[in-house]
Specification:
10-stranded mixed sheet; 14 helices; D-Maltodextrin-Binding Protein, domain 2; single chain; alpha/beta; two-stranded parallel sheet
Length: 356
């Protein structure tokens, strides 16, 4: 064998020896790592590899749990529905709850053959089609009776304050109305604005139908004293449609939930009072109008609503069926969360008046 070949053989043998030595050290290291691993680092899922015990995935889990701090909130998906007045709360407040507590799902439900509203929500609740409902009025006696016939007791939990704002064309030279004058307009006794100190201009009164929801029902009971609308009152489908008509009709008038009316720049909200000498504005002065309104909309006169100075106010309720099941737990936990400082802040930002 030549000297060159002998050198190559010796070099190859040395490399093999080093490989065996390193492999033994590697096996020894792996053995020591497994032997010294803490008992609680054992992988509970055989389909996933073990992670080093120096990592801390628990911190992620802990943050997720702490994010949802709603007591007694059940897991599952719950159907709810009812008042159209609640739409801003469903959009701006409920979304925060379901984002922070993804184990608590909320699905808004309203049958295609029924108009959404407080009455519809309570009806669906009694028929066991909703877990709980949202209402802009109290439960009626006949609704309680119907629930009792089905073995249910209904509980209403107030969570916010709302007001009914009266809107007119911004060019109408009327600053306010008494509740009695408002009643006379909608029952047909007052038909011209000159009868209440305005111009010689015919009044066009708009309203949604009684079946539309709690706002109309509340107005009929508390403003009209359960009298019927006059034959000259024009029925419209939505508040959006009514506000568009007011912007074009100088003699028009309409009422709706204050958060739907007060921030609108195309109409003017009237001061309302039980006495002509004590008219109260539904918005905070000074009035923002014109192009400035689009940038800085008018805000609710929250203090007047909360104190009861503004005469047409109401509470918003979560309606719960007391059946001792998950639906009751979901409704009560949801209502209790709405009464927390965080949710009350969100309710105020959504345009309503906080209850607490």
């Amino acid at each position: 064998m030549s000297g060159k070949k002998e050198t190559l053989v010796l070099l190859f043998a040395a490399l093999i020896s080093i490989g065996f030595l390193l492999g033994g050290v590697g096996l020894l290291g792996l053995f020591l790592m497994n032997f010294l691993r803490p008992p609680n680092s054992t992988n509970s899922n055989p389909d996933k590899p073990n992670v080093a015990f120096t990592e801390a995935p628990v911190a992620i889990t802990s943050n997720t749990v702490n994010k949802c701090n709603v007591p007694n909130l059940p897991k599952g998906t719950f159907t709810y529905g009812g008042s159209t007045t609640w739409a801003p709360i469903r959009r701006d407040v409920d979304s925060v709850l379901t984002k922070n507590c993804p184990q608590f799902g909320l699905v808004y439900y309203n049958p295609p053959n029924k108009k959404p509203g407080s009455g519809t929500g309570i009806e669906l609740l009694i028929d066991n089609l909703l877990s709980f409902s949202q209402s802009s009025r109290s439960v009626k006696g006949e609704e309680n009776q119907k629930a009792l016939q089905k073995g249910l007791n209904l509980k209403e939990i107030p969570v916010a304050i709302d007001g009914i704002a009266v809107a007119v064309n911004p060019n109408l030279n009327i600053s306010g109305l008494t509740v009695a004058q408002l009643k006379d307009i909608y029952t047909g006794k007052i038909t011209n604005w000159k009868q209440v100190g305005g111009s010689d201009l015919a009044i066009t009164a708009y309203t949604r139908t009684k079946e539309a929801g709690g706002t109309v029902e509340f107005f009929v009971e508390n403003v009209l004293n359960k009298e019927d609308f006059a034959s000259n009152v024009i029925y419209i489908g939505t508040t959006t449609e009514a506000l568009r008509k007011l912007a074009r009709n100088p003699g028009g008038i309409y009422y709706a939930s204050a958060p739907e009316v007060v921030p609108q720049c195309s109409v003017k909200s009237l001061a309302i009072g039980n006495d002509a000498s004590k008219l109260v504005l539904p918005y905070q002065e000074p009035l923002v109008s014109g192009s400035q309104c689009a940038v800085q909309p008018n805000k609710l006169n929250s203090n007047a609503f909360r104190r009861g100075d503004y005469p047409i106010t109401r509470k918003l309720f979560v309606i719960v069926k007391l059946n001792g099941q998950n639906d009751q737990q979901a409704g009560e936990a949801y209502a209790n969360w709405l009464l927390t400082p965080q949710a009350q802040d969100l309710i105020e930002k959504a345009g309503f008046v906080r209850l607490q």
